[in-house]
User: What shape does this take?
Amino acid sequence: MTDSPILALRGVSKSFGQVHALSQVDFHADAGEVMALVGDNGAGKSTLIKSIAGIHPIDEGEILFEGRPVSIGGPKDAGRLGIEVVYQDLALCDNLDVVQNMYLGRELRDRLWRLDEATMEQRTRETLRGLSVTTIRTPRQLVAGLSGGQRQSVAVARAVMWNSRVVILDEPTAALGVAQTRQVLDLVRRLAEQGLAVVLISHNLHDIFEVADRITVLRLGRSVGEYAVAETTQQEIVQAITAGIPAAARSNGEAPV
Amino acid sequence: MSMQAGTESVSELDLPPVAAPGSAGRGPRLTGGRLVARAAPLAVPWLMLAALIAAYSSLQEGVLSREQLNLWTAATLTLLLVAAGQTIVILLGGIDLSVGGIVSLSTALAATQLGTGGSRLIGWAALIALLGFAAGAVNGFLVARLRLQPFIVTLATWSIWSGVALWVLPTEGGTVPESYLSWVNREALGIGAPVAVLLALVAFWIWFKRTPLGTGIRAIGSSENSAYLSGVPTSLTVTAAYALSGLFAALAGLFLVTQTASGSPTVGNDFILNSVAAVVIGGTSLFGGRGGLGGTIAGAFVLTVIGDLIFALDISSFWTPITTGVLLILAVLANSLTELYARRRARR
Assistant: This one.
């Protein structure tokens, strides 16, 4: 574990009425690493990232950004800190083109308050090229006309364009075919190599073991434990997800080698 | 700046940033199929208008003249101003029925308060425009903040403003000062004041659709949730859209009194559904996100020219609403077909 993670959650709890979606959850994301967040349906993964994004304010605990406690009141606050979330439905607007989507809500303006189209288009090209996204031929295409993988690439590119420090990806490969999944996983790896803290939520352990450095397992709103990918196995993670066997149990020799 | 710097250095190392060809232009570059796909929705209303004008000019002399343009624009401008506001709200995925009440109230106030001219006239005209803006902002607040249905909200405020209009001016009448009526009759180079207003409206739209607000409105029309998650200030954007619709409705009332030289507490009601019809004939989707003023202009003129055409054909005037209805259905049908076509083109 690094000394000061970019993003850390300490004892975070969140309830919706009687439902304890998160209780006393600890979590962190470090620069240059891919942290996977796994858990069964209803384990609290979505609530956790929505808390980080400021959509669900937390009831208890604290969120630390670069060691400082912060309060995040909405997607704009998160964005200002450098936390970007790529939601499962990607939050793209079909009727706008790639450039307009990349800058949605943060448009560059010229003196007459119009969009600075030329600069926006140029930076979009540069960002896509920087991420080696070659599948999008022109950033003036409407998003409606893009494939699933291309849309995912646009959403990821948008997330990293804003001096982001932390990028959270919610099930980025769930709706993709084999080749497109490959592209997105490569992209995830490149983000970490460029020094970002990446949080990857996925149900696909195979994908996770391929790109992640660490895994945090959530079960019924609690964190079961954190595992280094290099020192664990898929079986161990499955057991943690389904039965909640914590990492400490491993030292008792219960987990298969 | 870490990510930005990282991204740039990568592109500098691997692929030197090439100045994208043609990216110096202001608007988005469009070529070939994509241009066709985006222009297609505009084609339907303008072709419809061209066909109606062609039919009319086969029956009448001097249709393609500046005089006719001035006449038709004067006859259409009230509807067009209301429909311009309606376009903005419908692009957002909403609807504004309150424009009827705002137009009525605006004419009622104009016919009773403008006085005899001078600074009182200017002050009240500005106040009426401001009231329209504020009335629209109330709609926007109720829709955006209190999450009420736009149909019900604007139905309610239509009723409220109609009531206030009756309070201000119980029956049709009042007087509008001569000095105010005269500006409409001014001409320059054979172009009347209504045409000048129309051109100003077009200039406004060309600017407006490229502003962050214009983009935000279309984004919300596509998906309010996506827009919110992307950081679009959705409440503010929705409120601004309804406020603009209220402002345009008030301006429409201020123009209408120059045509009638009097106020009416119920005159606005004609413009509620006609403004929606003009927007829809103009190719703007009632589901939001697609369309714009370019089509609405044609849509509004279509409604004017139909009436004149029916008159010129010397058939009973009840054919006007019937023909309007049929054209409305044809326009919606044509628009959904071009949208389908545009999507297929966009995929290539």
Q: What stands out?
A: Residues 41-347 of chain B form a domain with the ABC transporter involved in vitamin B12 uptake, BtuC fold (CATH 1.10.3470). Confidence is low (pLDDT under 50) at residues 1-27 of chain B. Chain B has 14 helices and two strands. Chain B touches chain A through 49 residues (CB under 8 Å).
